């Protein structure tokens, strides 16, 4: 049986292993005493900060590694810890701004541990330069914005294509989209849902591409056969949009925007809980805009008449919350006939 390793030898081995780990670490390891002076600086830290170890050891951390405008915060934090023992940053990974030897600043992640708490404490900071990661993340965010902008412009182009085929409803989808998104905002929905409602409303009638133009522009009262044919546009819109993997339920909005809470709508006869809230909003906006706009088969109604109609059917056809919100917007001065259709503020405001 081998004799036990002496305690002093164990300490030597432990110290050797620790030194090897610090020297080979990919993260910068900076050790600081209770006076704020650097007492160790590993090779990774040399690479990150651009200093040789001998250039910083014995110097204050605040003088060498911290930007001028942040030095007082660092010094105060150290003083507070020594006075109270309160560990505000000890043991937490946090993002900081650090300074290199060439005086340039960079973002870094840092975690600090404190050892030897019985005597004068020693602090070990593990530091990682994240400037390349943040640059990549910024590039990815910009790429996502560019893709999103292209997607939005494509949806807008599709919307205008539908309106070209139906000149009597030119601007209809954009007006519905503006009103629907304004209601969604008033209802305090998350931004992502507001965007989906705006875009879904912007192409909610895309299925009218499948409806003969002579029906869309027929003067006078529509024949029963025309009405039946016109109703297919919801399903056709769904079929057109469903294969596209949008981050919003645009296909379902197109499919459901003529459904009623009591199941009397079309084309599926859905009832209350099965109708998307987004589709309920677009439905009310669509009704209000349609009633107040001229059509070849009927004159325009006043906004008062339109609001009175949706109020009469609130709870039976239309969502009461949406109806109340719509009425409140118009009572506060919203005007559907004065919005700037070309500015499309909802598109430009999306991040």
TrEMBL record:
Residues annotated as domain PAS: 14-85
Domain HD-GYP as annotated: residue spans: 147-342
CDD domains named in the record: HDc, PAS
Pfam families for this protein: HD_5 (PF13487), PAS_9 (PF13426)
Transmembrane segments: none
Matches recorded under Gene3D superfamilies: Hypothetical protein af1432, PAS domain
Domain of life, per lineage: Bacteria
Protein name from the UniProt record: Histidine kinase
Organism lineage: Bacteria, Pseudomonadati, Thermodesulfobacteriota, Desulfobacteria, Desulfobacterales
